[in-house]
Fold this sequence. Notes:
single chain, about 325 residues, globular, mainly beta, 4-stranded antiparallel sheet, 22 strands
Amino acid sequence: xTAAALRQICKWYVKRNLREHWPSKIxxxxxxxxxxxxxxxxxxxxxxxxxxxxxxASGTGNPVxxxxxxxxxxxxxVADPFLLHVxxxxxMFFEVYNFDADRGEIAxxxxxxxxxWTYQKIVLREPFHLSYPYVFEWQxxxxxxxxxxxxxSVRLYEAKTFPTxxxxxxxxxxxxxxxxxxxxxTDDRWWLFTETNPALAHDTLRLYQAPALRGPWQExxxxxxxxxxxxxxxxxxxxxxxxNRILRFAQDCFPVxxxxxxxxxxxxxxxxxxxxxxASFGPLFGPSWRxxxxxxxxxxxxxxxxxxxxxxxxxxxxxxxxxxxEGWQRGR
Length: 332
């Protein structure tokens, strides 16, 4: 039997037998060169003396959150974690892919020490896909810029009641399929990185600037600052400002989406100029022997834990193929 014939049989089998158990969009995405496959994402915590020298924390039961942690919806995976430390409590916001809704929603978990996490609930859902909940505090208020590329825009949400009630207050950008938008403020200006070719190659990074968070936002004259390079274009988590140093984290999406995380130091950033350089000799994270990161890793949100230690929320995936693992059926 030829490989082409085998793929046709696999395709027929999925359409004939799995659609009653899987949402239609998921079933369509399951076909790979060797039959049905799926990336199962989970979330872990790493720590170290520097945001560029982080390791899987000793004594931490990674992954700290999986699809099985989710108690209020049936989840296919969890990914894209972002952290906030408010008072004496750590908050994590992340994507949960809702099995029944067939799209991403934003969930919330809490921790006292940053290492042991308790899932709480879904806190934001829309009639379109949500992911990458880039959450931050500004002037005593809490904001979130989740990925909303299916809405064709970059949307700003504000916490009506933190951390559980969020409302969309502004549309910051329109005109592209914006992915993984990442904002930060320096030199009295706001800046925003976003990838605009997510459907094809994850290879185009644009840069925008504004005098205020709500805008007006304008594209930087050198934007797109990266083109035709899936190794370093797509954002991979919070832009980190450590003293005078600004670090941008990027996904390496070759040979497949979400393979590694790389770091770059921004050395020049003005309304008319932009320069960066690699901040490390190689990837910070990638595929490893750990089961939950065997396929790759694609996200980091590093936070200072104390004067001598950093922690970061990361995610990783493993490939799930034939047979479909126990517990993934609709009736679990």
